[in-house]
Write the structure tokens for this entry.
Amino acid sequence: MSETYKKQIVQHIIRNLLDIQLLRIIQAEPTWGYKIKKQVEADFNIKIRHGALYPTLNLLEEKGFVSCTLQQKGGRARKVYAVTADGQVYLQTFYGVLQGQLGSNDL
Amino acid sequence: MSETYKKQIVQHIIRNLLDIQLLRIIQAEPTWGYKIKKQVEADFNIKIRHGALYPTLNLLEEKGFVSCTLQQKGGRARKVYAVTADGQVYLQTFYGVLQGQLGSNDL
DNA sequence: TACAATATGTCCACACACGGACATATCTTG
DNA sequence: CAAGATATGTCCGTGTGTGGACATATTGTA
């Protein structure tokens, strides 16, 4: 796996496919906005705007791709997201379209 | 594979990941701009702007991800593109990042 | 011979997304 | 007790990309 293009690719994805990438991260493990931000910034050494992150999470919830559970940790509230069945279908369909693995019967 | 989200996902990809999708199509078979446009429009029933398509193809060539061969068919010239070794590495790295399959040694 | 298709290219008004500031509240640490 | 971290949210000027027109040349067809 090449290291040369990795950072620019990650920024490409975060910029253009934030919704998909969030779905993927949440599918791996239910989590919340702030943790995703810190995690991605640590893993890839890039910045995620929380001004884009939180509205996108809310959008995913509106679309029914993730469900939201309010978790109280002391007085601080976390909105823990989990991928719904619809979200999983969406994500899998995305991968299929991207890699051209859709059967011809789909049309 | 779900049909529900397919069209919006394809538009999502064409809009935000045109370069990647072009790489994938060209990797499957060396081809040229106009054919890609017609093919995608027929396959997915969506419009591709050639005003975005051709500059993107030229950009991919500049970056060295595709090579270009001028093919004369009668008097009409075609710019037939093929994916280079660099382009294949880029594409594979992209899939890896997107699906989170990068080893931890990559950092 | 005129129109549609093939084939590639540029350009511009406009809309949308970005970067970053502003905002609020709680908890932890020095 | 103040500063930084946790946690989520809005807003706005600016810059980037979109949609579609304009452009050109050849070939096939009605």
Summary: The two ends of chain A are 34 Å apart (CA to CA). Chain A has a mean pLDDT of 90. Residues 32-35, 38, 50-51, 53-55, 57-58, 73, 76-79 of chain A lie near DNA strand D (CB under 10 Å from a C1').
